C-alpha cells in the first residue's frame, strides 16, 4: 500500500511541477558589449561604434574622390566636344 501511495505522490508531484526558466533573459550588467540596465554603455561598445563610424567615413571619402575624378573626366569630354563643335561651325 505504501508503494502505491509513493507512486501516486511522485506522479502527482510531476504533474503539478511548473517549468522553471534556467536561463537569463539578458546579459549580465558586466558582460562585454551588453546594454546596461541603467542605459549606459561600456567602453567596448563605444570603441566599436567609433571604429565603425571611422570606417564608414573613410569609405565615403573614397567614393567621393572617385566621383570627383569621374566628374572631372566628364567635364574634360564635354569641353573637348564643345571645341569640336566650334571647329565645325567655324569651317562653314
From TrEMBL:
One of its GO terms (molecular function) is ATPase inhibitor activity. Belongs to the ATPase inhibitor family. Residues 23-43 are annotated as: Disordered. Residues 47-91 form a coiled coil. It comes from Saccharomycodes ludwigii. This is ATPase inhibitor, mitochondrial. One of its GO terms (cellular component) is mitochondrion. Inhibits the enzyme activity of ATPase. InterPro entries: ATPase_inhibitor_mt. It is found in: Mitochondrion.
Amino acid at each position: 500500500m505504501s508503494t502505491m501511495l509513493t507512486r501516486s505522490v511522485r506522479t502527482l508531484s510531476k504533474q503539478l511541477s511548473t517549468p522553471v526558466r534556467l536561463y537569463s533573459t539578458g546579459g549580465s550588467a558586466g558582460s562585454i558589449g551588453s546594454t546596461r540596465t541603467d542605459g549606459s554603455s561600456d567602453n567596448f561598445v563605444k570603441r566599436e561604434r567609433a571604429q565603425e563610424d571611422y570606417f564608414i567615413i573613410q569609405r565615403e571619402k573614397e567614393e567621393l574622390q572617385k566621383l570627383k575624378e569621374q566628374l572631372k573626366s566628364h567635364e574634360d569630354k564635354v569641353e573637348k566636344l564643345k571645341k569640336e563643335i566650334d571647329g565645325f561651325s567655324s569651317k562653314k
